[in-house]
């Protein structure tokens, strides 16, 4: 009888986990179902490039997982019952409920307006492909001299502002940051950021909280109105709300609390990876929402599942950081070396070489997802008899 594994979400972490499980387990022992609403892989770390008018290489899941044994189901997840061990879906064929023995929850995160008046109505987001494409259309309609205002001084905001300024030098680009520009990187790296921003003509409003977004302006807490023909919101992420509606233990922001193997501390048959999971790094600090966190989380979850099913010892990837890779348009970049807990070290790589390094990292991440069973030869293992659920041949519930 097959052990039923369902993976919810096919972003970097979900697709990676599904591929690794398919590589490590024998198809006659397990069924692996990958559920995703879209038919192809989205390189989320490149959405600012899409918004700026660039086209990305299509990566259809049907091609990526052909011959791997992974079943792709195009559907939207509507609910998870962690006690009954079922997931509810809605797809082209209507509503459906699937039962699982092991669940990998990788629904990720989206944008959040943090309750700022007018943000939901007037701002654009680039946390999703539909959002990036919508902004792309808006930017294409802007006339020379109009202003694009990016709200948020983190990695996404910095990358978006520089990408837009480089791609559309005829526009005015502004960045509104709650803190100082790049105040999380080393002094030399921060100086490089300022140099690039000045070269691209980006106006920076530092130490400014946004109190309101209007159709034609961003208003800060002190009442300053900043002209904005298009406002781009990059102030952080909100996780998918489904987990918080379950009986699983979650944080206040809805992340599933997991152990070192990425298993839910309240429901050990559920593994949460990527932005959906609240995991502690090796340094003792929580992992931040990022691809840099998600891939090792997915690797650890897959290895833990394999170990549990086959009665072997799990391989564990380190949970920490080495650097932060920041693109500053297509020609400039910044690689900030960090401690394991993500605090900046004194060293950094700056300039065109850093841009090429960042591009290599992005290509490598996408290639790894697009080639799920390629790489080091790994023997597919048989699952132990104890892991074979009674009656598991019945995969769907009425």
UniProtKB/TrEMBL annotation:
GO terms for molecular function: NAD(P)H dehydrogenase (quinone) activity. It holds the Pfam family Pyr_redox_2. Coiled coil: none annotated. GO terms for biological process: aerobic electron transport chain. The keyword Oxidoreductase applies. It comes from the Bacteria. Gene3D superfamilies: 3.50.50.100. The keyword Oxidoreductase applies. Its cofactor is FAD. Residues 4-301 form the FAD/NAD(P)-binding domain. Keywords: FAD, Flavoprotein, Oxidoreductase. Belongs to the NADH dehydrogenase family. This is NADH dehydrogenase, FAD-containing subunit. It comes from Glycomyces sambucus.
